[in-house]
Amino acid sequence: MIKMSLNGKQVELDVDSSMPLLYAIRDIAQLTGTKFGCGLGLCGACTVHLDGQAVRSCVTTAAAAEGKSITTVEGLSNDEQLHPVQKAWIANKVPQCGYCQSGQMMSAAALIASNTAPTDSEIDTAMQGNICRCGTYPRIKKAIKEAAKEARADSLTSASAYSEQESQVSS
Amino acid sequence: MNNTILTTKTETELAVDRQSSTVRKVSRREFFAITGATGAGLLLTANTTANTTDKPTNAATEIDAAHLNVFVSIAPSGEVKIVCHRMEMGQGILTSTPQIIADELGADWSKVTAVLGEANSAYGRQGTGGSASIRLHFDHTRRMGAVARTMLEQAAAQKWAVELTDVKAENHTVRNMITGEALGFGELAEAAAILPVPDKTNVSLKKTDDFSIIGKDVALQGVKDIVTAKAIYAHDIQLPGMLIASIERPPVVGGRVKSYDASEAKKVAGVVDVIRLKDRSYPVQVQPKSGVAVLATNTWAAQEGRKKLKVEWDLGANQTHNSDEYKKELKRKVSSPAKKIRSVGQVDSHKFNQRNTLEAVYTMPYHHHMSMETPSATALVKNGEADIWSGTQSPQWGKSLALQELGLDPEKDQAKVRFNTTLMGGAFGRKSKNDYTLEAVELSKATGKPVKVVWTREDDVKHGFYHSIAANYMKAELNDKNSCDYWVQRVAAPPIAWIFNNDSTYLENSDLSLGFADVPFAVQNMSFENQEVSTHVRTGWVRAVGNLNNQFALGSFVDELADKAGISTIEMWMNLLGEDRQFNPREQGFEGYTHYGQTVDKDNTDYVLEIARFKRVLNRVAEEANISQELPAGEGWGISVGYSFNSYVAAATKVRVTGSQVTPLEMHTAIDCGLVITPDRVRSQMEGAMIMGLSMTLESEITVKDGAIVQNNFYDYPSSRMNQVPPMFVHIIDSDYAPGGVGEPGLPPILPSITNAVFHAIGKRVRDLPVSQSL
Ligand code: FES
Ligand code: FES
C-alpha cells in the first residue's frame, strides 16, 4: 500500500512499490489524463507534480510518492475555474492531437509557479523534455507567456490558488 | 474519478461517451441520444452520394460504402450535434467537417457540438488518410448541412403557410421574409424530423461569398476536453475485469515463435495468462505479427512479465536484410536504365554533353511515424460478438478485418461487431493499419475477457510500417537559356503494395504519381524510370508518402542545377516550370497517372497541375522570407516547392552551420490549398510539418540490421524538441480553387529547403539523409 495525496485527496494504492507512478495513476487510480509516451523519461507525456515539482511519472516509482503530494492534470483546476495555462492553451489553439498536452501543461504550470516572467530560453529549458510530435511548440511558447502574464497580473488567479492548494497539501 | 465505468441494464452495445468521459454500455437508441436526438428532436440521416456513384437516397443504399452519410441532430433546445465520421488524429477534422455542415445548415457555431463517429458504412468512407477528408468530401459534406437546412425551412414554410422561397435559415433560426417572424432551430426540429428527406441533388448550396463559418477561425471542437483531460484516447479505455496485454513480437518480418518458456513470466504478481498468438502467413497485409502475449491486471505487470519471457525465434528469410547494404544496392540500381513509365521526346539516343550535365543520386532512409500515442486497442469478444475500441484511421477496414478474424459474415454479421473509435494521439499514417486492433480481438477471443493491447515505445519503433527507403537518380543537361532540354529520373524503393502482394517488386503508378513522374517541367525530352526491388520490412504510408523522397530529390536537384548555371534557385524553378499552363500528366507521356485514385480527364480537371500556382507559392515564400538578404558567413537560405494531394507548398529555411552542427534560424511555408475551411488548422498543420521536417531531415532514420529494426525510442529516433525549433511563419494563399489536402503536403518541401540551406551556408551538398550522417 502506497499512501499519497492525489489531487488533494488522500489515497492508498495497492501497488508494487517498484511500479512506476505513471501506472499507479493510470491503471490503479484510473486517472488517465497522465499519458504514456516513452517510459524512459524522454518525452514528458507523463509529467505530474510531486510536491509542486514537475517529475516524469514513468521513471518515478510509486514508492517515491509515499507520503508526498501528487498533482495530475485532473488536479490542475476545477471545471469552473481553469488554470491560466489551460485558458492560454485554449485561446492559442495549442493542441493538435492533444495527447502530449497534459504533460506540456504540467511542465508549463510548474515553470510559471516559480517564474512568472520566463524568457524564451527559460521556456526552452523548462520545456525541452516535453516532445510534441504534432509540432505545437510555437503555440506552447506563446501560451506560456500569456499564462505567465495572467499569473503575474492577477494574484487571485487560479494559478496562485493552485499553488496555495499545493502548499497546503504538502504542509 | 475521471473515467468511471457505468454499467447499465442494456447489454446490447458499448460506447464511449466523450461528453461525460465515461465508458458505459448503451443501447443503439441511446447512442443516438448521445448524439443529441432526444426523442422529439430531429435526427437526420442525410444521405448524399459520393461523386462517382450518384444514386438517390434510400435505405438500401445506406450500407453502400460509396455513400456519404452524416448524422445531424437537433435537440428541442436548439443544440446541434454533428457526427464527424472522419477520424481525428490532430489534423482538426473534428472541427472542419462539422464547420462545413454547420455553415450550410445556417447554424450558430456556439451551439454545435461534434461527436466522433463509430465505424459504420452508413457514413460513407471513413478511412482517414491521403489528406482526403475535405479534398474528396467537401461537396457532399456541404450537402449534409444543406439537406438539414432545407428540412428546417420546409417545416417553417409549412407553419407559416408560405412558399419555401419566402423563408431563410440563418444564425440558428428560420426567418419569414414576408412578416419578419423567426423560429429557432430547436422549435422547428420536431416538425422537420417528420418530413421526407429531400433529394440531396435538389438542395441549394450557399455561394462561396456567403460562407459565414467556412473559412473562419471558429472555436475548436474538443479542445476544452483535451486541456481538462476529459478527451479519450485508445490508451485510456478502461473496462471492468480488463486485462492488459504486452506482446513480444518476432524481431524480423516473417519470423515465428520456435519455442517459448513462460514459467518465470507467470510468477510476476499481476500476470494472469501468457498466450501465444497464432502464426500468420504472407502476404503480411495489416495482420498482427504474432508472438507471445503476457496478460496482466495492469500495464506494469504485463511489461514486467514480458521481460521474463524466454522466446526462441525462427527468424526466416528476411534476417539477411541490412539497410546499409540495401541502400547501396538501391543506389547501384538507379544508376542503370530501368522500366520506363513516362517518356517525352527522345532521351535515349541523346549524347549528354558532360560539361553541361549534372547527375546525382539522392537517398532517404526508412522512417517511422512516431506518433506520441503508441498503438493501442481494446476488445471484448463474447458469445461470438465483439465490442472494440481503437484509435484508428480505418474504422471500417478494422471492422471488416475483425469480422473476418472472428469468422463472421462480412455483410450479415455487421451488427455483431461494434467498432468504437477514440481520438488518436497522432497517427501520421501508422494507424491506418489495424494490426494492433486485431491483436486485441485475438487475445480477447482467446481469454473471454476484455483485453487492452498496449504497445511500448520500443514495440512501436520496431514493429511499424515504414516509409520506404529510397534512391532517386537525376540527370539533366543545361541549355543556353539556363533551362534543360534533356532530363532523366529513376527511382528505386520497396513498394507499399508488397504488404498486400509479396510478388510485388515495382512501385505502382499511384506511387509514381507522387511527385515523381508527374514533374510538370517544360523540358522537351524526358525519361522517367522505375527500378525493380525486393522488400524485407513492412512498408507503409507515412505522412506524404513517396512525395518525401521524390520532392527531396527534385528540390535538391533544381538547386544544384541553379548553382551550376549560376542563377538563383527560384529562377531555375521558373525556367523549368515554363509558361503558365495546365499540366495533365496523362497527356504528357504518363498514361498511368492517377491522383490518389481520382481519374484526371476531360470531365475531371480538378487534378491537373497548375503551373501558376507553383510560381505563386514560390514567389510568396521568397518574398516573405526575404531570401535574397545578405547573410553572415556560415548562414544560408534554402527553398523548395512541391505539389501533393492537390495542394501547392513552398518552403524556405534559414540555417547556420558550425562544424557539423546545423541550427535552423527561421522557417517559412506558403501554401495554396484552394478554398480554406479552417485557416488556423492549415497553419497548425504547416507548423507541424516544419517541425517534423526538421528532425526527419537532420537527425532521424530507421536502420535495419540482420532483419531487425535497430532503433528503440526517442533517444535513437529523435523528434524535434522546443529548443531546436526556430521562429516559423505560415502564409496562406487566397484561392478559390477546389479545396486540396492539408495534413501531408506541408512536409515534403521542408526536406530540400533545409539541405539547400546547408549548401548555401557552407557549400556542402547533402544528398543522403539524414544530414547528421552526411556532414
Ligand atoms: S512517458 Fe514518461 S517521459 Fe515519456
Ligand atoms: S499535440 Fe499531438 S503530440 Fe502534441
Written account of the structure:
The complex is a heterodimer of chains A (171) and B (775). Chain A is of the alpha+beta class and 171 residues long. Chain A folds into two domains: 1-75, Beta-grasp domain (Ubiquitin-like (UB roll)); 78-171, DNA polymerase, domain 1. In chain A, 40% of the residues lie in helices and 12% in strands. Chain A has a five-stranded mixed β-sheet with strand order 2-1-5-3-4, with helices on both faces. With 775 residues, chain B is of the alpha+beta class. Chain B is 25% helix and 24% strand. Chain B has 17 helices and 32 strands. In chain B, the strands form nine sheets. In chain B, strands 13-14-11-21-18-19-20 form a seven-stranded mixed β-sheet, with helices on both faces. In chain B, helix 9 (395-405) runs parallel beside helix 10, helix 14 (569-577) packs antiparallel against helix 15 (611-625) and helix 16 (679-698) crosses helix 17 (750-762). Chain B is globular, with a radius of gyration of 27 Å. The interface between A and B is large, with 59 and 62 residues. One FE2/S2 (inorganic) cluster (FES) is lined by residues 36-39, 41-46, 56, 58 of chain A.
